[in-house]
Write a structure and sequence with these properties.
The protein is built from five helices and five strands, in the order ααβαβαβββα. The protein is of the alpha/beta class. Strand 2, helix 4 (75-82) and strand 3 form a beta-alpha-beta unit. The longest helix has 22 residues, at 7-28.
Length: 145
Amino acid sequence: MKKRFRPKVLTVLCILGAVLCLLAGAVFGKLIRPNVLLAQGYEMEGVDVSHYQGDIQWELLEEHYGARPVIYATYTVYRRYIEGEFDQYPLWIRNVYYSPNLDLGRKWDFWQYTDKALLEGGGTEPYVDCNVFSGTAEELAQYIL
């Protein structure tokens, strides 16, 4: 005897599907930001105000500042141009969709987890980037020039 698919089960599946679609829309519409919750587990947070301009001569930077340069890249740029290269340099990865721990394949030092944090009290921009450091306050101090 064949089992019939019960209408109640179908109704529950439809409701579950609708809820999942709404959640996905809220995440991609940046109404819900799961990375903000994930980043709260790190001891150090910061705000990134720098922008990349032009070509970088890594050895000259290292010689001039007496410290290794930090490579900042979006997830897409990292995968396309940087992955497997420059592994000796600290990595600052931008991934506002999910934690780089999931599939980056190497250690990251800084993670920009959102570009939509609200900055209270001023500035011309309503949103700022937020970042975390994958280490202790003492390890972060080694980056200060």
